[in-house]
Design brief:
The protein is α/β, with parallel strands linked by helices. The protein is built from 17 helices and 20 strands. The N and C termini lie far apart (about 80 Å). The structure holds NADP nicotinamide-adenine-dinucleotide phosphate and magnesium ion (MG). The site of NADP nicotinamide-adenine-dinucleotide phosphate (NAP) has 27 residues, from helix 9, helix 10 and helix 13.
């Protein structure tokens, strides 16, 4: 059965229409009238054409978002109405779940089953969770002791107000979910948004845009401009933008900070990682082996929190490495639409070349390959899941984010050594700890300089659980109540009581 036979009529129709920019509640061509092709990474086919937005389109979108924030009905709307609208969007997404899953698989390469089970329901969840926050964002009152006015008493309180116009720039690894992580809290807080999806995977955001209009959001509240890095840079530099929220590489994260300096807009960043996954000898080793494999191979290793450095207590090192290598060898690789596929292609030629380059660099530096290490001889960007040993902490494969299905396994002797090595990178996003000793698990969680530790599990995400990085893995926390803090300002109000 070919791919095309399995794509639903709705998705085929969606792909056949030219994809435009969503600006001020309308779909419009880019001002240059240019488009770019979107590629299926499983076979190199062009899935469709998308408008090529540039600085002029970003400017138009930002002005629409500014007008909607400053004068539109959105910020005056009752918060319960805002909440209902966000909930309605989640309902519409659920009704279009299969379309989203198919687009995600075609555009990104991930197995359709994974998009159905993870990406789409998690995206729906975050809209529902944040819809609930709309009605619960509130300030506080404070008793104050103003010393220079002994007879006057003050009423002092805070207001939580939306930060304003937000520019949101997202990557290609979880296209719909990243759009949801960004849009849902911004909308719940009352902001207006210009979203720039990744050039590799713009499709699901555009379907989401259609549903935003169906849900009844006022014009200019959500604007979507597809394009490349230059469009992202124009958004970051735009003087009418109050805040930028970015997910992507640490390298571009630095550029975002420079661009945002012009008007000192607020910035939140969710960047890369080189996450340690630590297996102690006293762990349930079968669970740890399966968990270590899924920590790195889920989403083809294209996760900012991928467990790419596997530290194993020396007495069980061979057993764990053999177990993970066996799983790696058995993973079925193929087109995301094939029901047997457990791992699809990497997202692009660029990513394929990058990951293959890292594997070669590891081998050149003296690493041994226990599994994988090769690309597949077929069209598309397929790389075999790879397990390396005999690495050293100075090697590029240990220090740099590979963002592919490549894990380096290293033995350790004691807790102090593994904490030191685990913390020995510029990153600090997440970590895994596998042990039956509760006290060790809590002590390790406290010692690791990371934003999330998973104990006897990995890659557990929930709309209520804050996620973000220490060190160069980012600024701020997405999801949970903390995500609302990213999109609100606190105003203090004082008035004397006569
Ligand atoms: P990236 O360059 O950081 O791209 C992320 C987003 O930023 C995309 O929407 C991108 O647009 C945009 N962008 C690029 N240059 C920009 C600029 N100067 N100003 C504003 N926005 C800009 O990531 P990538 O090139 O797709 O992947 C490179 C590496 O980043 C990966 O190999 C991986 O190591 C890391 N990465 C990390 C995450 C994460 O979740 N932490 C996600 C993806 C990638 P275009 O796509 O149109 O260029
Ligand atoms: Mg890039």
């Amino acid at each position: 059965m070919t791919n095309t036979q399995r794509i639903s009529t709705e998705v085929t129709n969606f792909l056949n229409q030219p994809k435009k920019l969503l600006i001020n509640g309308e779909w419009m061509a880019s001002q240059s009238n240019k488009n770019f092709g979107v590629e299926n990474p499983a076979n190199g086919d062009t899935l469709g054409q998308v408008a090529h937005g540039e600085a002029a389109d970003i400017d138009k979108a930002v002005r629409a978002a500014r007008e909607a924030f400053d004068h539109g009905p959105w910020t005056k709307m009752m918060v319960a109405e805002r909440s209902k609208m966000i909930w309605k969007l989640a309902d519409l997404m659920e009704q279009h779940a299969e379309q989203f899953a198919q687009l995600e698989s075609l555009d990104n390469g991930k197995p359709l089953a994974v998009a159905r089970a993870a990406d789409v329901p998690l995206a729906v969840d975050i809209f529902r969770y944040m819809a609930g926050w709309s009605t619960k964002i509130h300030g506080e009152t404070f008793p104050v002791s103003v010393p220079y006015t002994p007879d006057t008493r003050y009423l002092t309180y805070t207001l939580k107000e939306p930060v304003g116009v937000v520019g949101q720039i997202i990557p290609w690894n979880f296209p719909l979910l990243m759009a949801a992580w960004k849009l849902a809290p911004a909308l719940a807080s009352g902001c207006t948004v210009v979203l720039k999806p990744a050039e590799q995977t713009p499709l699901s955001a555009l379907l989401l845009g259609e549903l935003v209009l169906k849900a009844g959001f006022p014009k200019g509240v959500v604007n979507i401009v597809t394009g490349f890095g230059d469009a992202g840079a124009a958004l970051v530099q735009h003087p009418m933008v109050d805040k930028v929220a970015f997910t992507g590489s640490t390298e571009v994260g630095r550029l975002i900070l420079q661009g945002a300096a012009s008007n000192l807009k607020k910035v939140s960043l969710e960047l890369g990682g080189k996450s340690p996954n630590i297996v102690f000898a006293d762990a349930d080793l079968d669970a740890a082996i399966a968990g270590a494999a899924s920590a790195i191979f889920f989403n083809h290793g294209q996760c900012c929190c991928a467990g790419s450095r596997l530290f194993v207590e020396h007495s069980v090192f061979d057993r764990v490495v053999d177990g993970v290598s066996k799983i790696a060898e058995a993973i079925q690789i193929g087109d995301g639409f094939d029901p047997g596929t457990q791992m699809g292609p990497l997202v692009s030629r660029e990513q394929f070349d990058k990951v293959c380059g890292y594997i070669q660099s590891g081998v050149k530096d003296g690493a041994q390959l226990k599994a994988g290490g090769k690309a597949l001889e077929r069209p598309g960007y397929f790389v075999r899941p790879t397990v390396m040993t005999d690495t050293a902490s100075h090697m590029k494969v240990i220090q740099e984010e590979i963002f592919g299905p490549v894990v380096a396994a290293m033995p350790f002797k004691n807790t102090d050594d593994v904490v030191k090595e685990a913390n020995n990178t510029d990153y600090g996003l997440a970590a895994g700890i596998w042990t039956r000793d509760l006290s060790k698990a809590h002590a390790m969680s406290a010692k690791l300089r990371v934003g999330t530790t998973w104990v006897n599990c990995y890659n557990i995400f929930d709309a209520a659980l804050p996620f973000g990085g220490y060190k160069q893995s980012g600024w701020g926390r997405e999801m949970g109540k903390q995500a609302i803090d990213l999109y609100t300002e606190t105003k203090s109000v004082c008035l004397p009581l006569s």
